[in-house]
Specification:
single chain; mainly alpha; Four Helix Bundle (Hemerythrin (Met), subunit A); 6 helices; 80% helix; elongated
Length: 209
């Protein structure tokens, strides 16, 4: 099953079941894609409007970038499921003998590293989406500015959710130097981009109230 292709209802039903995938990573990718799409909506509603002729070229470029990020994030829903599967199998490996323990430990470290790759990429793509939302919110049609604020809120949540899928895996890594490196990367993205997303949201809210 390709989780980026199923209906919203089916995705949510499987998400809420005992199935190991999709999980928080896939959900964060979807929410990030939704947040990016809301920004893209602002661009789409701005292009072609006489009032916004001066920023039309900017909006057209932004929508093209947003479409790419949306597509990338949707693809990461399935990729997250694919990288988690080996990890779930490692947890089930026997560890009765010293040899089995060693093999499991080695397989676990490899699987944990692989499982971190997708949520890190989800975070990176979501950060890119937030950067676009800054432009959509400031230059886009005022009639759609609420969608830019909603997009920022979604992307902030997606960024935070994806980070937890990194932290839960780095916590179990034996290579603490590598784990700390990944954690610091997540920390930097959270610190910078949740603040930007919050600024977008607050600005939009102040313009609407």
């Amino acid at each position: 099953m390709d989780f980026s292709e199923v209906s919203c209802r089916e995705f949510v039903d499987v998400l809420g079941s005992k199935a190991p995938v999709p999980g928080g990573g896939g959900a964060s990718a979807l929410v990030g894609a939704v947040g990016c799409a809301l920004g893209n909506m602002v661009g789409s509603l701005t292009v072609g409007k006489k009032k916004y002729k001066d920023v039309e070229a900017d909006m057209a470029a932004l929508t093209a970038q947003a479409e790419k990020i949306q597509s990338d994030l949707l693809g990461l829903i399935q990729r997250d499921a694919e990288v988690f599967e080996p990890l779930s199998k490692v947890y089930a490996m026997k560890h009765d003998t010293e040899e089995q323990k060693q093999k499991k430990a080695e397989a676990m470290e490899k699987a944990l590293r692989e499982a971190c790759t997708v949520p890190i990429e989800i975070m990176e793509k979501t950060c890119e989406a937030i950067e676009l939302l800054v432009e959509f919110a400031s230059k886009g049609s005022v009639m759609a500015v609420s969608d830019a604020g909603a997009g920022a809120a979604c992307c902030s949540g997606a960024l935070k959710a994806a980070s937890l899928n990194v932290y839960i895996n780095t916590k179990s890594m034996s290579d603490r130097s590598y784990a700390d490196q990944l954690n610091r990367s997540c920390d930097r993205m959270l610190e910078k981009y949740t603040r930007i997303a919050e600024d977008i949201f607050n600005d939009v809210q102040s313009r609407l109230k």
